[in-house]
Amino acid sequence: MTETFKMSADTLDEFNFLEKLALNLGAIEAKVVPVGDIVVENRVVLKCRVGCPSYDNKLNCPPYVPSVDEFRKMLKEYRYALLVKYKSKAETDKDVGESLLKCQHDPSVIKHLKEKASKFLDDWKEDKKQIHQTSLELEKAAFNRGYTFAVAFSTGSCSLCEKCNIEGGKCIYPTRVRLPEHAVGVNIKKTAENAGMEIYFPFKKKPYPIALILID
Predict the structure, then answer these.
(1) Does a structural domain hold residue 13?
(2) How far is 209 from 2, CA to CA, in rounded Å?
(3) 126-171 residue pLDDT tens
(4) Which of 58, 177, 181, 195 has its CA at 20 to 30 Å from residue 157's CA atom?
(5) Phi/psi of residue 191, each to 5°?
(6) Confidence bin at 4 (pLDDT 50/70/90)
(7) Cis peptide preceding 202, ω within 30 of 0
């Protein structure tokens, strides 16, 4: 279990600059929490193995990333984390939501549902890119303030490239790529609940993704 550090008033004041920057960059909520609030579970990566098309197809997804046990050891060396919540522009409804996973491969999906689902996926991809860039800016801001081991995680699998350079065995954007939080076992739903941050998952109309940045 990760050691829990108490957040003093002075510590909370020290991180105000990050929370304010996150809001200025488009977040709807930002909160620095003790790293003990982060929940890491082996079963999270099981979902990568049994249902995610990115598994073994992207260099920053399993099995090419640190194992859950390796990440647990790394996490013990941190004290704080920044959770950043966004409101996605991507929007869907129940019927479209149910067709998202099969819309690109199943010709039987009704045309208008397929079109709406495809639009949702395109909008969500753009959202992920923006969130990724914001997370990098927050990481840099923490680094420049003296937190040299600050590191951001991506929300969802990497979307920097249309096709990952997995055959070449080397990422073409090594300074920009970040690991998806779930790829190392972070249960972001339980983590957000521990931090007192409301999360909507499964989402009903639009996603409210939550990004993670470790700070120390």
Answers:
(1) yes
(2) 24
(3) 889 999 999 999 999 999 999 999 999 999 889 899 899 999 999 9
(4) 195
(5) -60, -45
(6) very low
(7) yes
Count of domains for the chain: 1
Q: How many of the other CB atoms lie within 10 Å of CB of 48?
A: 20
Specify burial of residue 30 (Cβ count, 10 A radius: 0-12, 13-18, 19+).
buried
**65 falls within a domain:** yes
35/13 Cα distance (integer angstroms): 17
- Do 178 and 136 meet the contact criterion of CB atoms below 8 Å apart? yes
3-state SS class at 117: helix
Burial of residue 194 (CB within 10 Å: 0-12, 13-18, 19+) is middle
pLDDT at 119: 80
Cα(77)–Cα(56) distance, integer angstroms: 28
Over 50: is that where the pLDDT of 2 sits? no
pTM for this predicted structure: 0.84
At 210, is the pLDDT very low, low, confident or very high (cuts 50, 70, 90)? very high
What CA–CA distance (Å, rounded) separates 28 from 206? 14
For residue 33, being part of any structural domain is answered with: yes
Nearest 5°: CA angle at 160, between 74 and 29? 65
Instruction: For residue 117, tell me if it sits in a domain.
Output: no
What residue has token string 């008033």?
Answer: 9
How far is Cα 19 from Cα 213, in angstroms, rounded to an integer? Answer: 11
Provide the mean pLDDT of the chain. Answer: 87
